[in-house]
Amino acid sequence: MKSSRHTKILELVSEYDITTQEELLSRLNEAGFKVTQATVSRDIKELRLIKRLSADGKYRYTTNAKNALDNQATFESLFASSALSVESAENIAVVKTMSGMAQAVCAALDNINYNNVIGTIAGDDTIFIVVRSKYDAVYLADELRKML
């Protein structure tokens, strides 16, 4: 449900000049998504929507696609040059990095929107990535290993 709602939100902000959360809530309700203002607020944060000045002088919600691509490229570059290994255990993926690089790689990871990541923590050369399930940990570890 959340994934389809997020897809619909992205569709709505690209199709309409949505200027307020209330307007987005109304359009979601019209599309059959019965949500609260608090849910819409969380969705905006999770989708990293921003308000940009449009040609008519009003601020409207939009995606920050260019910034997302920059964040992804930064992460991939840091990861490829710093990570040494990736393992998974239960619902945790563990990344070993060169000494002193874990916090930079972890911060770059936090700036992108990896699915099902609950949180991260970094030391000097180790990153713990907590995900929702064992399956998610295995999948994430496999994806990260491809970048090594």
Write up what this structure looks like:
This protein is of the alpha+beta class and about 150 residues long. It folds into two domains: about 1-65, Orthogonal Bundle (Arc Repressor Mutant, subunit A), CATH 1.10.10; about 70-145, Gyrase A, domain 2. Helices cover about 50% and strands about 20% of the residues. It has six helices and six strands. The strands form two sheets. It has a four-stranded antiparallel sheet. A two-stranded antiparallel sheet has the order 1-2. Helix 4 (about 65-80) packs antiparallel against helix 5 (about 100-110). The longest helix has 18 residues, at about 65-80. It is elongated and about 50 Å long. About 20% of the residues are buried. The mean pLDDT is about 90.
Number of domains: 2
- Biggest pleated-sheet summary: 4 strands, antiparallel
CATH topology of the largest domain: Gyrase A, domain 2
Beta-strand share of residues: 15-25%
Let me know the average pLDDT.
90
Q: What is the succession of H and E elements?
A: HHHEEHEEHEEH
Helix content: 40-55%
- The stretches of 5 or more residues where confidence is low (pLDDT under 50) are none
What is the count of β-strands? 6
**Number of helical stretches of at least 4 residues:** 6
Please compute the radius of gyration using only Cα atoms.
18 Å
The second-level CATH architecture of the largest domain is 2-Layer Sandwich
Euclidean distance between termini CA atoms:
34 Å
**Strand order, largest beta sheet:** 3-4-6-5
Which CATH first-tier class of the largest domain would you pick? Answer: Alpha Beta
